[in-house]
Design goal:
The chain is an alpha+beta fold and 102 residues long. The chain has two helices and two strands.
Length: 102
Amino acid sequence: MRFVVNVAKLKINLVIAGRRYPLSVKDTQEEEGMRKAATKINELIARYEQSYEVSDKQDVLAMCALQFASKLEILSINKETTNDKALQKVHELINKVNDHLE
């Protein structure tokens, strides 16, 4: 016997760069995240449009995508570096304990 669980999805509408996007989200936490992301995108679009002469929304959206993607990559790189440093310190401590026990 197989049970199927139907999880009701929330229907939301987001406006990004003046266009409406209907979406389905699994819960209010995902909804909040989507709404905050849309707000940040729209704020960044406004800043780019004020700072640069932009004739096509596509250019502004590409700049926004690059901005957000680069931030994620930088965070990932920093996390890897932090993990590597922590792992190195753990190995140093293990070696010190082993040296002391011998």
